[in-house]
Amino acid sequence: MFEDWITIALLAFGIAVGIVGVVAYLRMYRKEKLAENRSLDDASTAERGADTEQKHTKG
Question: What is the pLDDT along the chain (59 residues), one digit of tens a residue?
């Protein structure tokens, strides 16, 4: 009977660690994607700003 409780406790601990690990990975992955999108947006904004400056200096 006591051994069953140990097995159940270890299984529950393993499942909890697995869930926490997946959640942490998904949070990290989401932050990385957001940072990548922001850097792409910044780059495209900088390009648009440079194009606008060139048009103003030409005209």
Answer: 667 999 999 999 999 999 999 999 999 999 999 888 888 777 777 666 655 555 666 55
In a domain, 23, yes or no: yes
Dihedral pair phi/psi, residue 55, rounded to 5° = -65, -40
Range of the domain at 35: 16-40
What whole-number distance in Å separates Cα of residue 14 and Cα of residue 9?
Answer: 9
Q: What total number of domains does the chain contain? A: 1
The pTM (predicted TM-score) of the whole model is 0.58
User: Where is 43: in which H helix or E strand?
Assistant: helix 2-58
